[in-house]
Specification:
The chain is mostly beta strands and 220 residues long. The chain contains one helix and 22 strands. The protein folds into three domains: 35 residues, no CATH class; 77 residues, Sandwich (Immunoglobulin-like); 79 residues, Sandwich (Immunoglobulin-like), CATH 2.60.40. The N terminus is likely disordered. InterPro entries: Big_2 (IPR003343), Invasin/intimin_cell_adhesion (IPR008964).
């Protein structure tokens, strides 16, 4: 009679206390449960197997621009598939996160994002950096204007992109003897001549100029 071979398959589940619990043994070739004697012999040899449970989030060091989104993903080492996670932002004023782990940058800064596994209550946290949207260009509208002596004209700063985090500019007149300008962009004619009006982005990286012609008042 040919020798009978047996392959033992163990069924196990986690009790989430740090051990794997054995539920029974099966002969995978015949798909029949082992006898009580076989079970007892095996059970006498086997002890609970300790294991570790960890939750991880990827990417590990995420960043996102203000107004943009970044997808975070969480996984737990003992779960089959992706698991079910609850997401939380430590500061919604800096970034928000939805139930799928999609983060939206709100304001420049750093914030902790946490994913908690709903089955084990294990969690992981990453620090997310929300980067400001940099200014790419500035201009003055209109780029040339005329104003009478003693009168005023309003100029406007155009900062791009429209969602730049800091759209503040500083106004200045290169020729205050002809015209002055305040920080709201309101220019005042002082004397007949041409004044160069300049704006500079607050970080100093971009500047633009406009020409302001000051004419004598007809009543002068």
């Amino acid at each position: 009679m040919p020798e009978q071979k047996m392959k033992i398959m163990e069924e196990a589940f986690s009790d989430f206390t740090g051990h794997m619990c054995r539920a029974g043994f099966t002969n995978s070739i015949s798909n029949e449960p082992l006898s009580e004697r076989q079970q007892s012999h095996l059970a006498a040899c086997l002890q609970a197997v300790p294991f570790s449970q960890t939750v991880s989030i990827t990417p590990a060091s995420p960043s996102v621009l203000v107004g943009k989104t970044v997808q975070l993903r969480a996984a737990i080492t003992i779960s089959e598939g992706a698991g079910s996670f609850t997401w939380k932002s430590a500061d919604n004023a800096i970034a928000t996160v939805n139930t799928a782990g999609l983060v939206t940058g709100v304001a420049a800064g750093k914030v902790q994002i946490t994913a908690t596994d709903s089955e084990t209550n294990l969690s992981a946290t990453v620090e997310l950096t929300v980067k400001p949207v940099s200014v790419e260009s500035v201009s003055i509208k209109p780029d040339s204007a005329t104003v009478e002596k003693g009168a005023t004209v309003r100029l406007a700063a155009n900062v791009l992109p429209a969602n730049a985090s800091n759209k503040k500019v500083t106004w200045a007149s290169k020729n205050p003897e002809f015209a002055t300008i305040d920080q709201s962009g309101l220019a005042t004619g002082v004397a007949a001549g041409v004044a160069t009006i300049e704006i500079v982005s607050e970080d100093g990286s971009h500047k633009a100029t406009a020409s302001l012609q000051v004419t004598e008042s007809p009543d002068a």
